[in-house]
């Protein structure tokens, strides 16, 4: 891939600043907006209802989805990296909590070599936390990490309000945002596998009304019943997801058979993936300044300048420590990324730590088996990003393209890079196709790469690169 010079880069940034100046609102509204707006109001309505009606009275398969996250205190343990890293992580936790519909009242960080095995934070900090909870009137504590069932239980017993971890929070957001049947089933499956080993821990402290604490009381029996119900439900969900996966696989195979290259738009949540898809294809998908706005993949057709068709798909965003339950459950959705021919990795250049985001996204791509797929970085939000940060990322990632999806700056260069990186058809052919086989000519245009085209008296003469299957079909028109 051609590398850009500093001057070219400066010019791009300047161009993006100029176009940005024409915008007086920082809210981007895509052209085709109706369905998007409906999505948004649905979602806000949903959030309100959830706020009102989620008294947690008992633990059962239904309730764990409706965590009552309203007035929360955040708690983090800082074990490695700089204080800045720890603060970024807490800022992200706060954004996640707000996306889930809660109000963040206070955040505490403790420096430790490792989390306390019994209460996550050390005992001194537990008392401080208890004081903060009392003073602020918080009803929930959210811990920045994945806690063991025992840690959750112990901390709850001490601070006397509900304690949830980062994983539960992310699962809660996914549950609120899932729209399609497949998305909902995948989230529910992930919640089931998260919940199963934790049922007892939550049961003890949260559903005292369910039975005796400790010992084998009626509560224990209830938990066993719940556990079996969750297991049965998970088996059913797995079957349903597999059935839906068949349809998706068939579509993907069809595209492969027609040798249509696929480009996956991947990246950290809120980086601007959906906005990029809208910009490139007028897809009209939901864009929101929220984490995990998109859960369901959208696939759209696009065309290169010389007429080759390819697909672009927008998919679920990644985050640091994406719960493994979600990666497992979302396997079929994530295959949009792992089965693609090219990944356009969108990065939010205005974020405090874009390099950390790049690293986290690559980890997930590796987890799902996509590490060998060629990658182009679209370093987005150049209109609001700190040029110094952009520069830093460009130095680390020389193949990154600075863009602003909002202003359109840098987009033509990005498109050219995508087109140049698409897999190229393999066989070069010279054909003369009679005018009554216009269908073949259009197929060569769509699937192949035209090197030369001439309209002669007895047909269209074409020199082109095509895939094996199409080359075979064209054999009788080959001329040497
Ligand atoms: N200033 C600025 N904001 C942008 C740009 N591109 C996207 N945004 C904003 O960033 C936010 C997230 O955009 P989305 O396109 O929804 O991001 P996403 O990556 O699809 O996010 P998820 O689906 O939630 O993972 C929205 O508020 C967009 O308006 C850009 O170039 N400049
Ligand atoms: Mg999105």
Mind explaining what this structure looks like?
The protein is 47% helix and 17% strand. The protein is α/β, with parallel strands linked by helices and 480 residues long. About 13% of the residues have low confidence. It is elongated and about 90 Å long. Guanosine-5'-triphosphate (GTP) binds next to helix 10. The site of magnesium ion (MG) has 5 residues, from helix 10.
Brief descriptors of the model:
480 residues, Rossmann fold, four-stranded parallel β-sheet, 17 helices, 47% helix, 17% strand, elongated, binds guanosine-5'-triphosphate, binds magnesium ion
List all distinct small molecules, including ions and cofactors, that are bound in this structure: guanosine-5'-triphosphate, magnesium ion
Broad structural category: alpha/beta
Total E-strand runs:
13
CATH topology tier name of the largest domain: Rossmann fold
- Give the oligomeric state of the chains in this entry, treating copies of one chain as homo and distinct chains as hetero: single chain
Quick summary:
With 480 residues, this protein is an alpha/beta fold. The protein is built from 17 helices and 13 strands.
Note the topology.
Elements: H1 6-21, H2 34-52, E1 71-78, H3 83-99, E2 103-111, H4 123-136, E3 140-143, H5 149-159, E4 162-165, H6 166-177, H7 181-195, H8 199-206, H9 218-257, E5 262-267, H10 273-281, E6 298-303, E7 309-314, H11 324-329, H12 331-338, E8 342-348, H13 354-367, E9 375-380, H14 387-396, E10 400-402, H15 411-421, E11 427-433, H16 438-447, E12 449-456, E13 459-466, H17 468-473
Parallel strand pairs: 1-2, 1-3, 3-4, 5-7, 5-8, 8-9, 9-10
Antiparallel strand pairs: 6-7, 11-13, 12-13
Helix pairs in contact: 3-6, 5-8, 6-7, 7-9, 8-9
Bound molecules: guanosine-5'-triphosphate and magnesium ion.
């Amino acid at each position: 891939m051609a590398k850009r010079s500093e001057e070219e880069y400066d010019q791009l940034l300047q161009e993006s600043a100029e176009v940005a100046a024409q915008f007086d609102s920082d809210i981007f509204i895509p052209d085709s907006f109706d369905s998007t707006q409906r999505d948004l109001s649905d979602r806000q309505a949903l959030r309100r209802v959830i706020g009102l009606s989620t008294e947690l009275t008992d633990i059962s398969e239904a309730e764990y989805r409706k965590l009552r996250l309203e007035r929360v205190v955040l708690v983090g343990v800082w074990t490695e990296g700089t204080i800045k890293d720890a603060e970024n992580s807490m800022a992200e936790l706060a954004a996640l909590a707000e996306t889930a519909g809660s109000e963040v009242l206070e955040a505490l960080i403790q420096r430790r070599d490792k989390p306390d095995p019994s209460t996550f934070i050390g005992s001194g900090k537990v008392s401080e936390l208890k004081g903060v909870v009392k003073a602020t009137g918080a009803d929930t504590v959210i811990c920045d990490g994945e806690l063991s069932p025992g840690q959750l239980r112990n901390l709850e017993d001490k601070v006397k309000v509900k304690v949830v971890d980062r994983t539960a929070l992310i699962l809660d957001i996914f549950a609120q945002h899932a729209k399609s049947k497949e998305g909902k089933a995948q989230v529910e499956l992930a919640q089931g596998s998260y919940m199963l080993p934790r049922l007892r821990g939550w049961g003890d402290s949260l559903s005292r009304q369910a039975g005796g604490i400790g010992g084998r009381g009626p509560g224990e029996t209830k938990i066993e019943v719940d556990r079996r119900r969750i297991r049965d439900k998970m088996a059913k969900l797995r079957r349903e997801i597999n059935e839906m996966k068949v349809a998706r696989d068939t579509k993907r195979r069809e595209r492969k058979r027609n040798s249509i290259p696929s480009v996956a738009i991947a990246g950290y949540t809120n980086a601007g993936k959906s906005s990029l898809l809208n910009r490139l294809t007028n897809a009209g998908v939901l864009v929101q300044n929220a984490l995990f706005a998109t859960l369901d993949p959208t696939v759209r057709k696009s065309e290169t300048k010389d007429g080759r068709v390819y697909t672009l798909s927008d998919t679920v965003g990644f985050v640091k420590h994406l719960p493994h339950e979600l990666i497992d459950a979302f396997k079929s959705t994530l295959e949009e990324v792992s089965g693609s021919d090219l990944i356009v990795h969108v990065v939010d250049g205005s974020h405090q730590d874009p390099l950390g985001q790049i690293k986290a996204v690559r980890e997930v791509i590796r987890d799902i088996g996509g590490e060998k797929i060629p990658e182009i970085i679209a370093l987005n939000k150049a209109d609001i990003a700190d040029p110094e940060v952009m520069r830093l990322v460009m130095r680390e990632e020389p193949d990154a393209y600075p863009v602003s999806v909002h202003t359109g700056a840098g987009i033509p260069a990005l498109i050219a890079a995508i087109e140049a990186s698409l897999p190229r058809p393999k066989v070069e052919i010279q054909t003369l196709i009679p005018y009554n086989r216009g269908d073949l000519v259009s197929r060569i245009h769509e699937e192949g790469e035209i090197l030369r085209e001439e309209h002669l008296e007895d047909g269209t003469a074409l020199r082109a690169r095509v895939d094996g299957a199409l080359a075979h079909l064209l054999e009788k028109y080959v001329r040497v």
